Amino acid sequence: ACVFILALCGCKAEEETKPKIKARVNTFSMRIDGKEWSPHQPQPPDDSCGNNFSGMYGFLTTNRSIPMSTFYASNAPREQRGNFIEIRVMDVSKTGVYTLDGNRSDYFSSNAFFGLRLRPDEEPTVYANDPRRRPFVVSIEEIKFEPYSAIPGMKGRFAGVLYNEQNPTDSIVITDGVFRFKKLGADHCGYE
């Protein structure tokens, strides 16, 4: 009986020392006018955990504390200028559908905008949501706190129409937008 107990203890010690594997835990993708669009993703041996997208969660404090989530993604490496999207959702305290009813010049409003560059050296053409027209919608499907974290991870979808700020007859349609931030910030790997 004594040998059996020692064998079990030995097995348990081996399991505890098994190395954890670093794996990608965050995702972000969408379609623009029917074409797939995803953030820049370095390939090994570069930092494959440092994709050019991020999720942030915080609070704006005016006369009350307002929870705010911001998602950003670019299709160029961090040191370069490319196409980018930023989505800000205000008052996110529970799962549900959030209609972005603000504009990008108002920092305290829910909004989305996409910057389109045909060449890296030019200023972007900006497409933004217009609450007076077809809505841009974000569905927060999960808000989950990971162990040892005061900042929640989030999972959800987004879609809508963004309008050219200089030419309102020009627009882009974003569909199939999906994000999963198990870990907020720009490092997209965790240990499993």
Structural description of this entry:
The protein is built from 1 helix and 13 strands. The chain has 192 residues and is mainly beta. Strands 2, 3, 4, 5, 6, 7, 8, 9, 10, 11 and 12 form an 11-stranded antiparallel β-sheet that branches. Strands 1-13 form a two-stranded antiparallel sheet. The longest helix is centred in the N-terminal third of the chain and has 15 residues. It is globular. The N terminus is likely disordered.
Kindly summarize this structure in a few lines.
This protein has 192 residues and is mainly beta.
Taken from the alpha-carbon principal axes, the silhouette is globular
Percentage of residues in strands? over 45%
Secondary-structure content class: mainly beta
| Cα end-to-end separation | 35 Å
Q: What is the helix/strand order?
A: HEEEEEEEEEEEEE
- Rg computed from alpha carbons, rounded to a whole number of angstroms: 21 Å
Largest beta-sheet details: 11 strands, antiparallel
What is the average per-residue confidence, as pLDDT, rounded to a whole number? 76
Which stretches are low in confidence, meaning pLDDT under 50 for 5 or more residues running?
A: 1-15
Give the proportion of residues in helices: under 10%
> How many E strands?
13
